[in-house]
């Protein structure tokens, strides 16, 4: 479902006129099949976020292609990419990125409002999803009234509410203690198993990568040989 082929990217750094080009991705080729959890592992600075940003279409690669669901997304223009992203990707971040002025319910509801889904249908969808991820009791709470684990559940529910086939998660347990990390990893596993959602998880944590069907390890912009994979 996701094919990344021979991706190269470099950043220009330094003063204008004296820029130096620093290569960050040096020919990355990888595949993620539908229904898999894939982990992209690597130390700080290895190029993980750059790879995720290119996969999500927030940045164009210098060269190489990205294909998602048979669409070559690296060939789309900005507005085509924005529309594609809305339909195909949900996002989960390390620091949750919830709207502080909205309740848990309203945060999850927001993407449906943006899509113009009608009130009754919206509320029913949010109620159903909140129940399935164990959030019903905190529906009226604001983010600062929730634990880290609850906030991450809200952010996962917000990512799922529009039913995207793929969730892109950047260090989804990076701000959580180890017990809460296990709960969130179990939630990701069950969403993958029960709903068939494909996950691409960026992490530096082997424990997180442990739930993946497929692991890629980035070092200095290159994938290391020996991709680990087991069946879904
Ligand atoms: N906009 C930019 N301009 C210049 N250099 C950049 C830019 N973004 C990233 N870099 C550099 O590219 C390299 C890879 O960065 P990237 O953020 O992709 O790594 P990462 O593996 O996600 O790291 P971390 O785990 O710390 O987020 C780093 O050396 C970084 O300094």
Automatic annotation (TrEMBL):
GO terms for molecular function: ATP binding. Keywords: ATP-binding, Nucleotide-binding, Transport. It holds the Pfam family ABC_tran. PROSITE patterns: ABC_TRANSPORTER_1, ABC_TRANSPORTER_2. InterPro entries: AAA+_ATPase, ABC_transporter-like_ATP-bd, ABC_transporter-like_CS, ABC_transpr_LolD-like, MacB-like_ATP-bd, P-loop_NTPase. SMART domains: AAA. Residues 2-232 form the ABC transporter domain. The keyword ATP-binding applies. PANTHER family: ABC TRANSPORTER ATP-BINDING PROTEIN YTRE, IMPORT ATP-BINDING PROTEIN. This is ABC transporter ATP-binding protein.
């Amino acid at each position: 479902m996701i094919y990344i082929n021979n991706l190269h990217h470099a950043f220009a750094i330094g003063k204008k006129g004296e820029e130096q080009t620093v290569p960050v991705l040096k020919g990355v080729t990888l595949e993620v099949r539908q229904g898999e959890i894939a982990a992209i592992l690597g130390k700080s600075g290895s190029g993980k976020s750059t790879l995720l940003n290119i996969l999500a279409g927030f940045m164009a690669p210098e060269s190489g292609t990205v294909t998602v669901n048979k669409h070559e997304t690296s060939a789309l223009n900005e507005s085509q990419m924005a529309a594609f992203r809305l339909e195909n990707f949900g996002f989960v971040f390390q620091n949750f990125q919830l709207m502080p002025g909205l309740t848990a319910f309203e945060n999850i509801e927001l993407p449906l409002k943006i899509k113009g889904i009608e009130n009754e249908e919206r509320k029913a969808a949010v109620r159903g999803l909140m129940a399935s991820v164990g959030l019903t009791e905190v529906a009226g709470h604001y983010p600062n009234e929730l634990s880290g684990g609850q906030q991450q559940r809200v952010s996962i529910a917000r990512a799922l509410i529009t039913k995207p086939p793929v969730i892109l998660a950047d260090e989804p347990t990076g701000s959580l203690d180890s017990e809460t990390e296990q709960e969130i990893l179990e939630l990701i596993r069950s969403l993958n198993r029960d709903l068939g959602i494909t996950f691409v998880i960026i992490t530096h944590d082997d424990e997180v990568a442990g739930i993946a069907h497929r692991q890629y390890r980035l070092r200095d912009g290159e994938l290391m040989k020996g991709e680990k994979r087991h069946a879904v």
